[in-house]
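FIELD: query
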Amino acid sequence: MRIFETMSADETFACARKIAEQAEPGQVYALIGDLGAGKTVFAQGFARGLGVDDYVNSPTFTILQIYEDGRIPFYHFDVYRIEESEEMEEVGFDDYICGDGVCLIEWAGRIEELMPEDTITVTIEKDLNRGPDYRRITIDENTCY
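FIELD: result
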């Protein structure tokens, strides 16, 4: 388990970028955090670390955004609006998590039963006592869903 502490959105972006620079095809990252925790900033930095230059935002209404211009494909899911895990079949979820790219899944707890056993969990937490922009980012590579 690795823990990072950031004091600004720029630092959160840079942290995610460094993590993604080490990402490999086939990896699945579950991104966990409350509303406003910084998941979108993390996803943007992660994309940049994969070499994606496109603007990245949370695909809340489309569920999935695909970026193929980086060093490996980046599949960015936002499953906040998913009510039944069966809805993931409609977007071809299994094809992506078993594919040749990296998956980053916001609100992954909503589809916990679909997550592969070797999922890497990224938890972003705020602590207002440490400042409004403080984030604690925990990377757990030993998650077993």
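FIELD: remark
The chain has a mean pLDDT of 93.
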